Amino acid sequence: MARVSRQNPEQVHPVDEVLPVGKLTLYGFQHVLAFYAGAVIVPIVLGNALDLSHEELVYLINADLLTCGVASIIQALGVWKIGARLPLVQGVTFTAVSPMIAIGMGAGGGTAGLLVVYGAVITAGIATFLFAPFFSKLVKYFPPVVIGTVLTIIGLTLIPQGLQDAAGGAKLIGHPGYGDLKNLGYALGTLLFILLVVRLGKPYLSSLAVLLGLVVGTAVAWLLGDADFGPVKDADWFGVSTPFHYGMPKFELFPIIAMVVVMLITMVETTGDVYAIGEITRKKVDNATVANALRADGVATVLGGVFNSFPYVAFAENIGLVRMSKIMSRFVVVAAGGFMIVLGLLPKAGSVVAAIPHPVLGGAAIAMFGMVAAVGVQILGKVDLREERNALILAVSLAAALLPNAVAPFFERMPEDVRAVLNSGITLGSLTAVLLNLFFNVFTRRSTMEIDWDEMEDDEPAEAQGPLGAPEPAGAHVPAETFAPQGVRPQPGRYEPQGPHTHTQPGHYAPQAPHTPQGPSGPQGPQGPNWGAPGH
Questions:
Q1: Containing structural domain, residue 65
Q2: Signal peptide location in the record (predicted)?
C-alpha cells in the first residue's frame, strides 16, 4: 500500500502524510468511536469485580481515556526513541484483566486492592521500558507462524466480546433482555449498514463506514427509545485525573511477578501488532521500530499506574479499522489521541459517547475484531502450513487460547498466582505459540520462513488505490523501504525481477526472488522474520 501520490513529488509515505484538518478530525473521531468500547470495558470489569462505587468507576474511566490519549500520541508521533511512529492506538490490554482482578481481590478488593494493582503496574511498566531493546533483538524467535498465530488468537478472542455487546452487553447476562431479538437487530443492522457503505459507497465514504454505522445505529436506537442520553446532563463538565488519587501504590512481590509476566505477553502482542500495521501500510518494520513501540508501552504503563489506570498495549481493534478504512496516516491517531484527552477531561462529553447502545457497538466490533484475525490469517498465508510442525504450532495454540472460556473449572482449581497469569486466552495461546516454536524450530535449529515485503506488493492488487480511491499511475507502486529520492521519478511500467542480492535503480519496482531458507550453517543460524530487512 505504499503509494506514490500524484500530488506529492517528494513521495511521502502514506503513514507520514499529514491530512487536511477536516479529514484528520473525521478519521480521528472514527478511531475514538471504534476504540471507546474496548477502552472502557477494562475499568468497568475491574471496577465491578473490586466492588467500587459508581463515582470511583467513573473516575477510572476518565483516567483511562486521558492516559490512552497521551499514550497514543506518544506512540504515533514519537518522542526520542519512544514510539513506533505508526498509526497505532494505545489501549488497556485485555491480557491484564484477569491478573489484575486476582491481585485486587487478593488484597481485599476496593481501593485497597487498586493500590496493590498500581504498584505492580508501575513496576511492570519500568521493566518493559528497560527490556524493550533486548526484546526487540529476540524478534527472530517470533517468525510469521508465531506472529500470525498470536494475531489470529487476539482477533478470535475479541470477537466474543463484540458478540456479547451485540446481545446487549455483559450487564445483561442472566437477564431476560440478554440476546433479545431487538438487540441482535440493532447489531445486525449496524453491521449490514457498514458492509453496504463499503460495497456501494465511494472510497471516501467507505473509509468512514464504521463511524457512519455507529452514528446511524445510535440514531435509530434513539428514535425507537433504546438509547438513553439522560446521564449526560448529570455528568460534570470538567474533571482531571490526579496522580495517586487513591493513595500511594503498594509494591508486593507476587503481584509484581504476575504483572511482569503479563507484560512479557503484551510485548509479543505489540510486536505482532507492529508487524501487522507494517504489513497493512507497507511501512518497513525493523528491530528499532519494535523497540520504540515497546518503550512506548512501558512509558504508557507507568503513566497508567501513576494516573490511576492500567497496562497499555498497541490496540489490535484499531488495526482492523486501518485495514478497513485504508487511512494510514499516523497523524490521524495523533488527532484521535487529542479527542481521547478531551473526553478524559470532560466527563459530560465522554458520557455522550458512552450512550452508544451496546448492540450498536457490537455490530461494528464484529467487523473490526474479525479484521484483526484476518490480518493474522494473511500473515499465516506466508507460512508453509503443509509442514507438520508449523501446522501443529497453529493448531495447539488455537486450542490453548480457547481453553479458559471453554473449561473454566480447570483454572478455578489452580493456585491463585498461577491462575492470575494463565486464565486468559490471549496469554495462554500466545505462550503456547512461542514455546512450541522454540521447541520445533529454534532448539532444533530449523530455519523458519521469512516474509519478503517486496513479494507482498503483488498479493493485493485490488488495494493499489489510495484511501480516497485515486488510482496509481503505472509503475509508481514502490516498496516502502526503497522510495525514490526527491527528483527521481520511476519509469512507467518498469518491472525487473531480481535475485536476492541484486539491486535496482531508485524508483524501479523490482520484486525479489523468493527467499531460500538457510540451514544451521547459514550466516545467521536459525532464521527469524527479519520482516522486510534489506538483502532478503
A1: 14-442
A2: none
Please report where in the chains the cell 509503475 appears, as a residue: 475
Mutual orientation of helices 330-345 and 21-49 as an angle, nearest 10°? Answer: 50
Query: Pseudo-torsion of CA 319, 321, 335, 15, nearest 10°?
Result: 60
Q: Residue 496: is it exposed, middle or buried by C-beta count within 10 angstroms (0-12/13-18/19+)?
A: exposed
Asked whether residue 409 is assigned to any structural domain, the reply reads: yes
19 neighbors 344 (Cβ within 8 angstroms):
no
The answer to whether 100 and 232 have CB atoms below 8 angstroms apart is no
Residue 401 lies in a domain: yes
Residue 188 confidence (pLDDT): 92
Q: pLDDT by residue (tens digit) across 155-184?
A: 888 788 778 888 887 677 778 878 888 888
pTM above 0.90, yes or no: no
pLDDT digits (tens, 9 = 90+) for 435-447: 899 898 877 765 5
Residue 93 CA to chain centroid, in angstroms?
Answer: 9
Residue pair 101/322 in contact (Cβ under 8 Å)? The answer is: no
- pLDDT given for residue 54 in this prediction: 67
- Please indicate, yes or no, if residue 104 is contained in any of the structural domains: yes
Total domains present in the chain: 1
Is residue 202 situated within a structural domain?
yes
Phi, psi (rounded to 5 degrees) for 82:
-115, 120
- Distance CA(99)–CA(301), nearest Å, equals 15
